[in-house]
Design a protein that fits this description.
This protein is of the alpha/beta class. It contains 16 helices and 11 strands. The protein folds into 3 domains: about 70 residues, no CATH class; about 180 residues, Rossmann fold (3-Layer(aba) Sandwich); about 60 residues, Winged helix-like DNA-binding domain superfamily/Winged helix DNA-binding domain (Arc Repressor Mutant, subunit A, Orthogonal Bundle), CATH 1.10.10.
Amino acid sequence: MLNINNINMDKNIKEKISYNILNIITESTYAKLEKLFKKHKSWEKALLNEILKQKYNFKYDPEKEYKKLEKNNIKLILFNDPEYPKLLKEIPMPPFGLYVLGNTEILNKKAITIIGTRKATSEGKLTAFNFSKKLSEADLIIVSGLALGIDSAAHLGCLETNGKTIAVLGSGFFNFYPKINEKLARKIINAGGTLISEYNIYSPSLAYRFLERNRITSGLSLGTLIIEAPKESGTLNTARYAIEQNRWIWVTPGPINHPNFYGSHELIKQGASLVTLPEDILKDLNINYENKDEKTILSEEEKIIYNAIKQFEKPIDIDKIIEITNLKTQTVNKIISILIIKNIVKETNQGYII
């Protein structure tokens, strides 16, 4: 058991060892942890009290459990630690502790949350990717939930421009979810980003925990960008947290009859800011950002289509672009969508023009 009388052990380390084991035996239940801390004002004292009472089954060794964190490069940051995110301290029910894997320096930098449905359209994922990329270029940290769909696209857009991104998990690190995104998680860490969780390392991925963690996803940021939120969506849960936290909410609009935008449009009706360009967000935040010359960073196929359209002073239709470029219809449609999002090509009733 934890040797409280070990005078060589730093008091802060004792608190972390005590918090970690209490977080395990309470199964990361916020209400139980809150009750313990309110009563004892110290995790160390709370642990000693619970050991004496034998209220819980203490089958874990506190120091060994803490060493598991160290062995796996998982850092535990408690509420009063200097590294604890300042914005997160402002929210209702801030986590008592955060398990962090990766770069802790970015936890207190300006950040934007980008989220949306897992069952996203290809256009929605492209929008998330490009917004994330542009906002990363403006030195903003991108926060999301590492889920499939919009979340993954947001993380990838940030990585595309060598930006830093934070993924907020709804489970413990030893029960990583979703498994399919483990490769993406490694990319995030290798690029100088971070994975964080308030749950002990053994916590399973339970549905309600993904709703709980949403307060952290929004709480880390200056504001939240919603891309494709259906009527029944965890994304709307995050939006509600952002409202409670008095943070910005931006929403990208979509087709009025598309189910993926039902919740998005309701948020706009309720006063969320409608945005169509990343610059709209930067303007709201009073961030000056000098646009790069997009034409210097186009892919080869993007350059081919850009040069084809540039030949004409008037709008050119899609069939003409396909004829000139000799590219497949699917490829042309996809790349034109990218060029429109980048604000390089404009769509008119007659066709496309630079």
